[in-house]
Automatic annotation (TrEMBL):
Keywords: Glycosyltransferase, Purine salvage, Transferase. It comes from Amblyomma triste. GO terms for cellular component: cytosol. This is Putative methylthioadenosine phosphorylase mtap. Belongs to the PNP/MTAP phosphorylase family. The keyword Transferase applies. SUPFAM superfamilies: Purine and uridine phosphorylases. Gene3D superfamilies: Nucleoside phosphorylase domain. PANTHER family: S-METHYL-5'-THIOADENOSINE PHOSPHORYLASE (PTHR42679).
Length: 318
């Protein structure tokens, strides 16, 4: 999204005259020099910031230390709520309540583009999202955690790209590859965390995202099972698509609240049940975050970020 103007200056690291710099950045050597490579890798390592998108039950800013609120304006309107920056342990984080802190925004009306844009504007490199979901499988029980790796999109009303031809939008048309929509490296860290915590979990899972706000019919739920989907929710799409388009490494912790209505031997899903289970699951999600964030901070993600940004750049036709 950035349009950087490069000029020659003296390098702040080795005083070479053969340098490139943006107007807002310190001058550095050419990309072929050891000085440049070392400084950019160090900058990437230091600049890690994790956006946390809290779904139902996990939108409490009290998990952050040294909290500071940010009202971010974007070309796509306002995010769901103010963003709250701070630290979890030693890791810089930004928390955003997907539905607003009072859960006042229904899934179809969430401004997914503004949410992702705002996280990127505040310097996030990663996004970990939490999401309530219903189970479509016997072996995925309420209280379990699923580290999602695929999705099926059944939404109908949501903008799915930043490249929409608008006046303030990025230029071009983006045909984004999403064969692997969730970032493998971040998923791997989350899986390591849930293993260490000995939480009942599933290391892969396909989520079907429906438009909502209603729940599924029995017929729909059975169709989704026949498609080999594992869980069902209302928010992962287009959030995961937009995060990848924005060059953010995105992974999702799906917190199972209930069995969807394909089962006839138990009461069907209702809001009270979902919210009660989600409040319990939120403690699990916080445990996972606290275990995963130090691992994320210890990894050099510079090559991952570059690969992701290059993939998006290749997808844009201008």
């Amino acid at each position: 999204f950035s349009h950087v103007q490069l000029t020659k200056r003296n390098c702040g690291n080795c005083a070479s005259e053969n340098v490139l710099s943006s107007r807002s950045a310190a001058a550095q050597c050419s990309p072929y020099s050891r000085c440049y490579v070392r400084s950019t890798m160090e900058a990437a390592r230091k600049a890690i910031k994790v956006g946390i998108i809290g779904g139902s039950g996990l939108d409490d800013p009290d998990i952050l230390e040294n909290r500071q609120e940010h009202a971010v304006k974007t070309p796509f309107g306002e995010p769901s709520d103010v963003l709250v920056s701070g630290k979890i342990g030693e890791v810089d984080c930004v928390l955003l309540a997907r539905h607003g802190r009072k859960h006042s925004v229904m899934p179809s009306n969430v401004n997914y583009r503004a949410n992702i844009w705002a996280l990127r504007e505040l310097g996030c490199t990663h996004v970990i999202a939490t999401t309530a979901c219903g189970s479509l499988r016997e072996d995925i029980s309420p209280g379990h955690v699923v580290i999602l790796d695929q999705f099926v999109d059944r939404t109908t009303k949501r903008a799915q790209t930043f490249y929409d031809g608008g006046k303030d939008s990025p230029k071009g048309v983006c045909h984004l590859p999403v064969a692997a929509p969730f970032h493998y490296g971040v998923r791997k860290v989350l899986i390591e965390a849930v293993r260490e915590l000995q939480i009942s979990h599933h290391e892969t899972g396909t989520v079907v995202t429906i438009e909502g706000p209603r729940f599924s019919t029995h017929a729909e739920s059975c169709i989704f099972r026949s498609w080999r989907c594992h869980v069902i929710n209302m928010t992962t799409v287009p959030e995961v698509i937009l995060a990848k388009e924005a060059g953010l490494m995105y992974a999702a912790i799906a917190l199972v609240t209930d069995y969807d209505c394909w089962r006839l031997d138990i009461p069907h899903v209702n809001v009270e049940q979902v919210m009660d289970t989600m409040r319990k699951n939120s403690c699990t999600a916080v445990q996972i975050l606290r275990a995963a964030l130090p691992k994320i901070a210890s990894i050099d993600w510079s090559s991952h970020l570059k690969d992701l940004q290059d993939e998006v750049a290749r997808a844009v036709m201008k």
